[in-house]
Amino acid sequence: MTDPKVTQSEPAPGSTDTQLEPGQARNEVAPPSRSQQVLRDILGGSAMISVLAVVLALLAGGILIALTDKDVQAAAGYFFSRPADTFRAIWDAVAGAYVALFQGSIYNFRADDFVRGIRPLTETLKFATPLITAGLGVALAFRVGLFNIGGRGQMLVAAGAAGYIGFAVPLPPGIHLVVAVLVGMLAGAIWGGIVGLLKARTGAHEVIVTIMLNYVAFYLISYLLTQQWALQAPGSTNPKSAAMLPTAVFPKILGEQFNLHLGFIVAIAATIWFWYFINRSSMGFRFRAVGENPNAAQVAGIKVKSVYVWAMVFSGALVGLAGVNQVLGTVTSGFTATIDASIGFDAITVALLGRSRPVGVFVAGVLFGALKAGGYSMQAAQGVPIDIVLVVQSLIVLFIAAPPLVRAIFRLPVPGTAPKSRTRKLEVAK
Amino acid sequence: MKLELRGITKRFGSLVANDHIDLTVEPGEIHCLLGENGAGKSTLMNVLYGLYQADEGEILLNDEVQHFSGPGDAMNAGIGMVHQHFMLIPVFTVAENVMLGHEQTKFGGLLNLDDARAKVREISARFGFDVDPDALVEDLPVGVQQRVEIIKALSRDASVLVFDEPTAVLTPQETDELMAIMRQLKQSGTSIVFITHKLREVREVADRITVIRLGKVVGEASPTDTNEELASLMVGRAVDLMIDKGPAKPGEVALRVEGLSVIDHRNQLVVNNVSFDVREGEVLAIAGVQGNGQTELTEAIVGLQPKVTGSISLGGRSLRGLSVRQTLDAGVGFVPEDRKIDGLVAEMTIAENLMLDRSEGEPFVKAGTLQLKFRSEFAEEKVREFDIRAQGIDTHVGRLSGGNQQKVVLARELSRELRLLVAAQPTRGLDVGSIEFVHTRIVEARDAGVPVIVVSTELDEVVALADRIAVMYRGGIVGIVPGDTPREVLGLMMAGEHPDTAGEAA
Questions:
Q1: Which entry of A56, A291, B136, B209 is 20 to 30 Å from A109 by CA?
Q2: Chain B environment of A303 (Cβ under 8 Å)
Q3: Residue of A nearest to B358 (CA)
Q4: ipTM of the shown complex
Q5: Separation CA A162–CA A141 (nearest Å)
Q6: Of B227, B245, B215, B222, nearest in space to B42 by CA
């Protein structure tokens, strides 16, 4: 009962016939768009692609470090008389930079004692905390086939709301922190939910709406930070809020000599929740079904539009948690309108690198935290501009977005059977 | 120009889309390619147009072998194509669209729009098209847009024109006008390849007819042949697919559809005032050539069509206006026409797909949490029961063969307590063994007292399953006849003839 005629009928001759049968666009639920298809391809790549993308990006970063290093440039001037000097200079520059990166982000083996030695790792985890939660938020939207570019806006409103509770509403210890966190997440959820609602009701594209809401949030928070009745610190003229009350601040979890705070535990909890939600809950099941094939989900009685709304609500809440983390953990002395530190955008990279899987996002968040923490020490120790780290981050995205490029470089086989690849090319050409 | 295709073979993996197809189109001839969806017509034309490279065979124009590596080569050689879905840029004017791809420029790189306008006017005048070169394409009716496509092809001196299902998007009047245009083109010496599955059009304009089925030429016909001969060539099956089926024991009327009309997203009336009923324990087959409103009719019953008038009631309860969820909860099982698009989530596992429409409540979900143990047991049981050939229940459905995919859909739909089963094209693209399996299951559902609607474009399937047959044509039901009605009569009804006259003619 095998069916040789149909097993590989993906680019079947009928496909051009059936592609746009009237039934397909029968109502307002749009057929999976091109962007969703691209998204699915990226997320469908193997974990190996992610790892190789990081390796490639670090290699390219190494080339840039070598090219911009003064010693290398000097040695290259007499390359043909003593080529070994150039290679030694390159080695010194690149190895030095990456060793400094390691020391600044994982373990400083030149430190006097273990506590100082391990401090960089805790800094890495501190930087990773908001990246992980925001990355989970973006990943959740990805799993439903939505691009949430609105991380900045969702973080800002969440930071504003949580910060307000944090400095202006005194509450008993414990309760204060919980209330501040929940209010912040609620604000992020509402900001994301608006997007979902607009998409479901009017068909507005979430990318455009989220980007525009970033501006709305930025100028709204900027305005509120200049208003005494709102977020501005009492008696101040700076657009900055008052410092958080001690009861609202995430407590340090490894003692005072480390900056790592409770927010990291919350991020771990969020990762576990994400895993449960997407893999074990019925709502997560519907989310995935809509993300993979909205048509089939609709035919199976799943309310696709309602899924879009809820997905953006949850996504906004998780991204909002990153904003909360910023005001109650990272910068507790009062915040400005740049409190998001463009984590909302880095989160997209983190989600892509982690392929929107909970563990993947967690690991990717830690990696990016390490790049942040180590970048400064790389600059301090070797004079390598911090921009190199940004370039490496960007290259990671570039390589992940172009799996065929990575496959070509490492000569990996194309997923799927070999004979298909030929027809696929033709399909593209068409 | 004389066009000749010799032994064209095109394979996609193990699927042979075109199997040694020979085709000759004489100058000034309208040559019809007739065949069902998926028969390989479009693939053949894409080979001709340079979009695909043939694995074997050659293309000859005026007895010279051609090598097309892309549509550009084909166009230069004098082949023009009018696609089913227009390749026009909506925000450009007619003249801009016509010059697109071979723009003439004046001094300084300025577009020579005057020439393009003149060309549009000249071709328009020659064929009486009445197309304004400065109109924006998006403002034009569909029929006129198609003329722009024709003008575009003619402006490049195409002497072979390929029309790929040109009438699929046209109203009947526009179709008649297109027929007239094709005759005119023919008289001016253009060779025309006309791809369609609509018999009426074929008989009206074709000089010669080639019928393709499953990637092979199955015969030549002439337009003077009867509809029934054409229909049997097109939809006939070599294999006899009769299954053992006892007589139906119809019970109460379960589904009652009255005066149902559906308006689709293009604001076309696609189902027109349809009434029928289905009894418990009976199979009503809805026959008809693809695209006569069957798809929309089933979608209206399940709640997937937004603009529906008339009434649908199941066991006295109205289904019209219910959401898909509510319809499914009312006991309707639905096997959608295109399982890959509407029936399954390819990236999900067999087990996940088996619970796709039951993600809200017990037994698959308790307190918002998936019951994985129950689901695994359920899936294991269904995989055994429905003989789904796969490595395990965690295999992604996208990796299964078409037959096994369809079994997953059937297993899901038949494992609920059903009060109505709607199966649209349940065996399209399946191998003989799977077809038999699916048919057996459908008859079992009937014998269990479930009312069943089977939509099929294949006469053999209709005859094998139906207790009664409703034939649809252009959105309406031509007639409802007993299951043992001769095929010749059915074939004529599929071409729009009323059952009484069809009976006499046969």
A1: A56
A2: 323, 325
A3: A300
A4: 0.81
A5: 23
A6: B215
